[in-house]
Amino acid sequence: MSKNEKKKRNWRDKYRFSVVNDTTFEEVWRVRLTQYNAFLLITFLVVFIIGATTCIIAFTNIKEFIPGYPDVTMRRNILMSAIRLDSLEKQLELRDKYFANINAIIAGEKPKEIFSMQDTSGTYGSIRNTTSPEESALRAQVENEEKYNVAFNPGVSESGTSLAELHFFPPVKGIVSSKFDDSHKHYGTDIVTKQRSPVSAALDGTVIFTGWTMETGYVIEIQHPNNIVSVYKHNASLLKETGDYVRAGEPVSIVGDSGELYTSGPHLHFEIWYKGSPLDPEKHILF
User: Is this model's pTM higher than 0.70 or not?
Assistant: First the structure.
């Protein structure tokens, strides 16, 4: 018999492992295995132990006991530090541009624009501003709904009128999710409405700010007569730019969920400021 045949035979030979009572010599437990089956069994047990250990470490808090692995508090601090660092970099960039503009003005040169009014991450050369049938239908629906609204009267002059005589146009129609609360520094009203709904100007006025912040996302501010300023936050996109004149009821932005700190879903955060003091929008507008 050759050596190869003998090796094959040894792999097929069965061996019996038994447990015997030392007093009565009764066989309590036994198992019959070949060398091949024993090798497969040991391999399976090793793979199972390695896989179970890996899963326990990966999906439980045991991994936090590994030296050098950050715990929950450390990871939260790292994330907040990254957010603050990004905000600080933006503020430093704005400050540098501000000083550069001051130097340009002193030197008699034309200052550069401080804020970027559009998203520069995309390509806009191929965009064509055409009116779609859906947009036309939406315009007709809004005009029909507001035809008999007493608050919509852009032809009336507001110079010399008091705050009580003004009729504010509701920026959106929806459900108030968070009310005005001066004690908690919540200087506006949060209105939940359909996503991608148009946001309308509350009064006639001039856009004085359009931009993006870490906390409130895309923001647009409008200066109205009688020292009134309206603020619209968490927009998905802005339809107007700084310096544009808008009429009451004219769309200025799109409802969204922008911002990384103070938002939990699509809604509009709307503020009214009168002579530098915040007003409760619900006292002047029915949403």
Answer: no
